């Protein structure tokens, strides 16, 4: 099997550094107070949906460094059928899918279940985390950022 080189279109951190730094700052603010493993699960799941190879690679590595197991990483794309995730994680993943697939809407049941597991500040951060990873995904897919590059 040979790898196919997909050339990047641009480097946003070089071409638009203020925009890049603004997204970094939003990302940092969204993570505050949230469990690091949960953050990575959310970011991997959104990246899977958005087919962002760079972010899947990046956040899978971060999840491993945060102590996440290989089994939970591998089963994340089928989390609904897996018994490896807590009720809180399941609520966060359901909200991640609803916000990422926004044209389908965010059902009251999905939002309410997340609100049962997260206080208002945590829920606000979780929502911000989800829309931030979606921004990263869109930036990286559009510019063809390659896994393993900085």
UniProtKB/TrEMBL annotation:
Protein name: AhpD family alkylhydroperoxidase
Pfam families, per database record: CMD (PF02627)
Source domain of life: Bacteria
Gene3D superfamilies according to UniProt: AhpD-like (1.20.1290.10)
Domain Carboxymuconolactone decarboxylase-like: start-end pairs: 17-97
Signal sequence residues: none
